[in-house]
Amino acid sequence: QGQEKLSCNPKKENGTHVVLCELGNPMKAGVQITVDMELSVSRLEDMGDAITFHLQLQSKNSPSPSNASVTVTVPVEAEAEMELRGNSLPAITVLPTSWHWVDGSRRLEDHGIKVEHVYELHNKGPGTVSGVTLSLAVPHLLGDHVLLYLLELGTEGGMNCSHHPALNPAQV
Fold it and tell me: Which of 22, 78, 131, 141 could potentially form a cystine with 127 if both were Cys, beta carbons 3.0 to 4.6 Å apart?
């Protein structure tokens, strides 16, 4: 008939997290009650595809071997929004018309004007992410001619990186 807030106490029993809620006492025979519970569970990333709750109703007054018990399985869906930001330094590069590639040279300036491309991958949440793969395709050839000479690849923030075999082929 009315709504009341329950007093609930979390505790740990045999490695299991238990939440004990007192519904009230005494209750008359045949009384029906509805309980809506909202649980906040942290670190769901490690839970897999679902989390299972075991709910049991027990009476302190008259212990019964058939205490009502139910298992509820709730699917876990992680949500995170990723954002990729990129920038080139300098933003605009103009090659002189008289410039030509110097084949076999180990001098950087003989392979073109240095342009640095910086990419940042941001997690906008709300969940955390792991196992993310970012594939970046850089056009380095135009037909049989070198368009961009890929010199090096670096990362920050504990990321693993694998790179294309065309990275610094002349060992400049």
Answer: 78
Q: Are 54 and 69 in contact (CB under 8 A)?
A: yes
Q: Is the pLDDT of residue 134 over 60?
A: yes
Tokens at 91, concatenated? 């933003």
Domain ranges (residues) in the chain = 7-75, 78-171
Asked whether 76 and 48 are in contact (CB, 8 A), the reply is yes
Which DSSP symbol is given to 17?
Answer: E
pTM of the model: 0.51
CA 163 to CA 172: how far, in whole Å? 17
For 161, how many CA atoms within 13 A lie in the half-sphere containing its CB?
Answer: 13
For residue 114, the SS3 value is: coil
**pLDDT tens digit sequence for 69-119:** 888 898 887 788 999 999 989 999 887 777 777 777 888 877 778 888 898
Q: What is the DSSP string of 115-148?
A: -EEEEEEEEEEES---S---------EETTEES-
How do residues 5-59 score in pLDDT, each as one tens digit? 777 888 888 878 888 887 766 667 777 777 787 777 777 766 778 888 888 877 7
Place of tokens 């110097």: 102
- Tokens 């005494």 locate to 26
